[in-house]
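Hi W.,

Here's what went into the run:
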Amino acid sequence: MGLDVRLPVGVMFAIMGALLVGYGLFGDQTIYARSLGINVNLWWGGVLLATGLIFLALAARGRAENP
Amino acid sequence: MSLSWLDWLLMLVYFAFVLGVGVALKKRTTTSTAFFQAGRAIPAWVCGLAFISANLGAQEIIGMAASGAKYGISTSHFYWVGAIPAMVFLGVFMMPFYYGSRARSVPEYLRLRYDEKTRGFNAISFALMTVFSSGISMYAMAKLLQILHIFDAPFAALGLGPQYIFHVCVVSSAIVVLIYVLLGGLSSAIYNEVLQFFLIVSGFVPLVYLGLRDAGGWSGIVASVPSALTHAWRGFGSASTSPMGVDALGVAMGLGFVLSFGYWCTDFLVVQRAMAADSMTAARRTPLIAAFPKMFFPFLVVMPGLIALSVHGGVIPVKLHEATGAVVLDALGKPQLDYDLTVPTLLLRYFPAGMLGLGLTALLASFMSGMAGNVTAFNTVWTYDIYQAYLRPQASDAHYLWIGRMATVFGIAASVLTAYVAAQFNNIMDVLQLVFAFVNAPLLATFLLGMFWKRATGHGAFSGLVAGTAAAALHHGLTIPAGAVAGVKGGWLAMLSTYPSEMAQNFWTAIDAFLVCLIVTVAVSLITKPRPDAELAGLVYSLTDRPRDAGLPWYQRPAILGVIVLAATGLLNLVFF
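Here's what came out:
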């Protein structure tokens, strides 16, 4: 059907990841007591951001191969 | 606990993307083939992830964790004995007939293989069931979000009472699913299911990680909960010692064979995803690709139940009476736990602002994927197997496309109505659920005989289905789980025997219905006129060319993938034996 689903998945995770990383870096640091002292926004946001970028790279490669 | 701006923003981003996918697909959705079958042009891995997602509704996620807290790791039987072998069987043996016959739906396959009445029976019961189950799941989800009290503050600020949370949840989720299915049909549902799959995983992985860390790892859980809960097969030697009240034979036959094969191999909701694949081998690989992540899902959906039991002496809240707010007590006078709150309790416990938004989005995603799965299966069966078959056979393609869109609106409206009926009349819902279980129980026998025995006839199949449904009802009416009151739980005719648990009763009812359907179908087929072989080519195993896989690399061959999946699943059973 022509739509490469890696594109929306990539963009969505990149945006969500970036938001979480930003909040983890600059937001209130006292909220992490509940997550056992782990800044889970920063870490998991980073994982999501990286995942999003990998999907975007795959989508870009797919587009280059069969435009 | 109330939500921060970031939690809301994350949910908003999710809504924007699922709607965006629908908008992007609108232009391409101009034929009925595009709308109902995604043009049969979706790559295998996309179909595979959609296959998991469509089944992974909110009820599944909430129910599996609840069951994990009640029965422990044995709940994985639903995956490691039930789903996975059935998915392998579907991919290796059954997809060639579904995909190769060019049937557009599962009921249509029954029409091609048997006759009109068998299709009609299946199509009508299936259409009713999809609308009904998406309504039930909508009700469960909205109820849950209301109980969590996280939306209380913004609603109070608007001057609305907490009961509006239920209305807003039901209506807003229905509208979002309506818009994206209306715009892009099955492709839209499938692409969004991929999005939802990744979201669900991304919400649950950190939850389980934090929970396990808090519990002191798997060994911490093993040390703090009864040992029957951390061994998948302990006590299954006999029904009296098994935590589920079923022995290993009952699990293997009832769950592993009749119920799971019956669901995964014949339910159009999941099979439709594989039928949308872009080639025969892609269609066959779909359930096999789905099986790889699926076998690890117990760690995401069952584990939270064990975590909630184990940390800090157990954190599952007690059940409160809906009307009075008093604690509900069991027969021994001890407070009952509200197991359905397991997952939300953990989300609120471990996730700070930000991650909480992601976790709630994951819950919403699971809910919407299940609902869209039901809706796309419903509009296809309604349009092709009911409207085109019985009401207007010779209309233009554009007309059927329009009818499909109308059916989407109608299906969702009917689901919303069901959600409200469920809120008012719990008993009606229990009875309906039971009736559908009776109708579904014998289906597997009909499909197996249809695909692998060319002598089976339409009259045989139809009478087998009717007899099997009756047998299920009869079995249920004559037996009762221990401690239950006669009624929807069974024993409404007479009480001939007692099962140790409701699950045992379910399993044996299904086995009974399957056997009766099998015997009646064979007997009636033998005394009725068979169809000529030429008409059954492509529909029955012995009259169909084997799909040729020899030219494919090993990792694309269904049989090899199937063996790998089964070996890995066997290993998981051993690890948690």
